[in-house]
Write the structure tokens for this entry.
Amino acid sequence: MENFDIPPIYDPITDKGDGMSDTFQLWLGNFVQNLIGYLTQFGIFVPRIDTTTRDRIRTAENGMIIYNTTLNKMQIFEAGLWKTFTTF
């Protein structure tokens, strides 16, 4: 398995400026395939934080999802507020 923590060290854009280099395209394709395999087997991991930490997030954007460990509930940031998932 490749080490995807270290992407190729070069500019992925070719000298001609016409898209990704072949090496970077191959690396990216392999990364995506391995990620799909991992998520298929293990699912996703949502950040787990308490309410105090959540309230310190200054750059929350619509669609951000967390697992609130204070409430033991999933929450989503929408229209400037954290909303709690009530049913699944």
About this structure: Strands lie at 48-49, 65-68, 73-78, 81-84.
